[in-house]
Amino acid sequence: MADGVVMGRFVRLRPVEEGDLERIRRWRNSPEVYYPMYNWDPITPEMQAQWYRNRVCDRERNRFFVIERLVPVSAEVEDIVNSVDNRADEQGQPSSKQFLSGVPLSCGESGFRPVGLISLTNMEGRHRRGDLGFYIAEERERAPGVALEAEYLLLRYGFDDLGLHKVWAEVLEGNEPVARMHRNYGFHVEGTLREHVWHDGRYKNVFCLGLLAVDFSAARGKIETLLKRLKQ
Length: 232
Fold this sequence. Notes:
Aminopeptidase; eight-stranded mixed β-sheet
């Protein structure tokens, strides 16, 4: 795991950097992202900078990752890039490879596209517990496999690398697909906070889900088998 990057087959989790702040702020201010959240207030650049200083940089208690999806180069794009580079070589000019960082340039190379945010927060050494949160911001990337592998990678990282005993999540009423996905990993519904938040014109329940390390150990074989069957 180089530089804190958590690698999967089609997804990787990269620690949030200061250069990601405007993209994340744009995601967070999208109605599609904030609708299932408690807070609908617009996020200003100042608020985002404060979030970065107080939360992201506090790596003892919080780990925030950008979810990036593997994007293999198409044969058509590869032919265009190679054609440009061949002409550049003939004219003694720099090739595109010197300028295009992270862009796939051959059949053996791939790039990664940022598609969302995932985190473990409020971790406490004594209790060895962390809160799970995530969203896939880009609508075109909301295929089940992206979220499935991203959550698997984070849980594996939390239990195997950070030594957590429990991961906790809260899901707002009406967001049943996310609650169902959590249960696939072995999460148990541990309680319901009745009419806990005012949301979209009425009070709504919040479902509390918990996953122990032993629960994840029991479920991870099934998840890993499913991930192996996924295609790009």
